[in-house]
Amino acid sequence: MAEEQPGLRARAAALLRRLALLLLLLAGAGGQPAWAVPGEGDITVQGRYAFDPGGQASVEAVAGGALPLQRLDRHRAFALGTGALWMRFELPVLDPAQRWYLLLSGSPFIDRASLFTADAGGRWREQRAGDHLPVAQWAHPHDSPLFSVPAGSGGTVWLRLQNQPAPASPFLRLVSEDGVQAQRQWTHLLVGGYLGFGLLVFVVGLMHARLYRDRAFHAYCAYVACMLLFQLAFTGLGGLFLWRTSAAFNDAAPALFMLPMIAAGIWFVREATALQRHHRGVDRATCAFVLFGLVLAGVYPWARGHGAYPLLNAYGLVSVVLSITLCAWTWRRGERYSGWLLLGFLPVHLAYPFPALRAAGLLPDSWATEYAVLIGSALEIPLLLWILHCRAKDFSETRVRLRALDSTDPLTGLAIPPVLQLRLRDALRRAHATGQRCAVLLVEVANHADIVARAGREAGDRALVVAASRLTAVVRELDTVCRIADHRFAILTEGSQPSERRRLLAQHVVARGLEPVPRLPRDLSLRLRVVTASAPDGSIELTGDGTADEQHLMQRLNRRLDRMLLDPRLVVHHLEPRDAAASVRQPVAAG
To answer: Which letter does DSSP use for residue 137 in this model?
Structure first.
């Protein structure tokens, strides 16, 4: 295993170098574009602004001086509530050979945007955009609000913005028609390439899910699908191409896709880290967190004005902390691939603060707040698939080795002793690393000889098959039931559990044996004898490779069960750790 680590790191480094090319291409879309013509650029800080608390002032009133104007010296966010933000811009003389536009970035955070320009008669002409208006009805349908401005002599324009509950952060660029076209083409190329790449990875993930029959791949595909839909909504391309006639859906789409994306991501972490094996309470809390995100997505469109928006931001922040914590915790407890998953999620975790701080009003709109998560996910999605592939391949090779052992008993369908030995050895190693004991039970069908004598060998075999079925029914899916001798079975239960559960399990096993057996005389039930122990026991010294541990433990259990069979009154016996303060040995007498 240690030899695989350098190769694994080398392949990861090579993959990161290839994916860095995508990052460079996406980064090329930011800043001042190479196609810019004279006069184009950011004009946000050239404007003056006024706040309308009631949101009812008309453009005539504002232009007439009804609201005091202030100078905007830097990009900033405005918490508007039910009010409106007015901004005045004095446009320079523009080249009449070009058509000119004002491009407003940050479409997910703009409910209503209106640009007022004066016509030849001095009347104000309004152009409208924003999430509360279908994109098909915008003055100029685009992924962000786009308004035309007159060329030639320049003049005064007024911009009115409304947004609730997120703060509004105006980022306004003056662009020519050629600049709009070039920006549109680059955006469609890069985001379209991202979506095409994501769909390819999604299909490959589905193929892996079918190939390896691993639920982690299903969770991964759900996460990728939600991520792609979220990016469509967040960048504005979904509103432009897919739901251009629905203003309500366009307004709610970023949150509606973000919440299931987060829930699917945590579900993926749960499956990929085998969380249910390590702690039942943590696993249930994680499932509750996933379910809460799905419920919040269902009620969010109706609860935005009742505290759902701060809850959305808190849910996203907690999910980042939770995924990091779960990956680090399970990695410390022996899940080798949890550490790689932590690194795989790192690009999105590093990018998440940009839109999160923008949503909280602590950062203004910028290229980084709009595209940081897209770039991070472009790196994250293939990395996670590669890590899952390595994990599944490793587990598949283990399963092949187990199958090579001819790993099932032909009569009962249970695991055979070499499989139990392998799993018990691994369980003891994990227990040595984590300090948590597993439980081992030996079960004997004490009256098997009597059943054979009275009803024949076929009935004896049927009794063993029924015993195997009932033992399998009382344990969990991840536990191991094995036939270790002609009429003797072993049960290995893994994971954190109190000693009282081991005792109750033994009683349950005995009770299931007393139930009637089909096609046998009613007075012939299965009389089961059980001996249990926690492993590793205090009397066992763990060695480096663990070879002697399981052999020593099984020898002790078999010797104790053999002695119990000499006394028909003894039904259940619990071997307690030798290093306990008091050893409890209380056999249960047969009634």
So the answer is: G
